[in-house]
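Quiz preparation item.
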């Protein structure tokens, strides 16, 4: 893992100071973040930082090797570079701040880095020799139609991420196999959204997560480490097609448990899914995605399959139920039907403009 003690604050003009950093080394702030990753440590925010990281992809043999949750936990997977360094740098930048990523390996191809920088929360402004110029991307936010005083917002701060984990821990009892330690393994490669009260952000009523699959740098999808828990494929690991680049998951409390208003749970679900799809198509620009939903949840199944173009496609359309320690114990895995979503996504509002239809009404 790289040492982040060579984070350097640059002058306001990153181009003139690129090779002459007369700067303050932001070591103390990084050390505090590293020691206490879930606390809001007061730090100084910078307009521009220089970060030295090794951007060389791993050898193909390394990321085709079969892994388990246990092996990743022992490998400090959650703090693995380069994502750990890039995401830490993002937390230290002001809005629209610039990060100069100096590649110490001098070997990567831009194709391999596109997803990596996007996952870390940056847009690419340009490249000078082996230095990439990145800008901190604004966070996404969505209102929830017909549900006053609640929003869906992209999480970033340690406190917001802690609200995400607290929601999941309360949502699922211990017997459902939820483990925060395992879930946290994938935080750095995930974009997390919270549905919460505008008056009290700690009042979370739903969450969703968009997780990147970047095997070139050793970042895997949670479902790839899972075992099937029903059907003839029990005990086998999931092998996803080579063009899979992401996976989305969402959860929301029902009605009175959540907003307190009857018949609104699917509206919260809808905006959480909208957040995932908007991020996928407008920011990540990834290819085919998979998503998961809880076993037996007919409301979310209708939303995913009938409204958003997802379908069961693995192993001759049988329902694949997974058992793994991220969101909960048992989830169905379904694939995004690309042609349908591409047809509808020419106008994003076409997907979400219907507030009620026959598919949804049946499950209220």
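Solution:
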């Amino acid at each position: 893992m790289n040492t982040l003690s060579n984070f350097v604050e640059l002058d306001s003009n990153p181009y003139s100071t690129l090779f002459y950093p007369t700067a303050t080394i932001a070591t103390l702030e990084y050390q505090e973040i590293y020691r206490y990753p879930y606390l809001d440590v007061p730090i100084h925010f910078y307009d521009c930082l220089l970060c030295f990281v090794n951007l060389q992809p791993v050898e193909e043999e390394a990321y085709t090797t079969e892994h388990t949750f246990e092996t990743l936990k022992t490998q400090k997977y959650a703090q693995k570079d380069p994502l750990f360094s890039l995401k830490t740098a993002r937390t230290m930048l002001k809005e629209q701040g610039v990060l100069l990523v100096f590649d110490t390996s001098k070997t990567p191809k831009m194709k391999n880095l596109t997803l990596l920088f996007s996952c870390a929360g940056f847009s690419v402004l340009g490249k000078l020799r082996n230095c990439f110029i990145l800008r901190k991307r604004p966070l996404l936010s969505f209102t929830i139609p017909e549900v006053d005083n609640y929003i869906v917002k992209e999480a970033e701060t340690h406190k917001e991420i802690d609200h995400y984990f607290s929601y999941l821990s309360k949502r699922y009892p211990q017997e459902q196999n939820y483990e925060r330690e395992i879930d946290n393994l994938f935080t750095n490669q995930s974009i997390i959204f919270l549905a919460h009260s505008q008056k009290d952000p700690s009042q979370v009523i739903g969450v969703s997560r968009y997780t990147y699959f970047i095997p070139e740098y050793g970042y895997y999808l949670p479902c790839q480490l899972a075992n099937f828990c029903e059907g003839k494929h029990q005990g086998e690991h999931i092998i996803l097609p080579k063009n899979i680049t992401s996976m989305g998951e969402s959860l929301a409390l029902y009605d009175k448990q959540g907003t307190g208003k009857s018949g609104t749970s699917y509206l919260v679900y809808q905006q959480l899914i909208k957040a995932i799809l908007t991020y996928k198509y407008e920011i990540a620009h990834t290819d085919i995605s998979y998503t998961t939903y809880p076993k037996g949840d007919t409301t979310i199944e209708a939303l995913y399959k009938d409204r958003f173009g997802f379908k069961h496609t693995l192993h001759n359309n049988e329902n694949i139920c997974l058992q793994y320690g991220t969101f909960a114990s048992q989830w169905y895995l379904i694939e995004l039907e690309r042609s349908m979503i591409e047809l509808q996504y020419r106008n994003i509002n076409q997907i979400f403009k219907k507030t009620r239809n026959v598919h949804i009404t049946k499950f209220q």
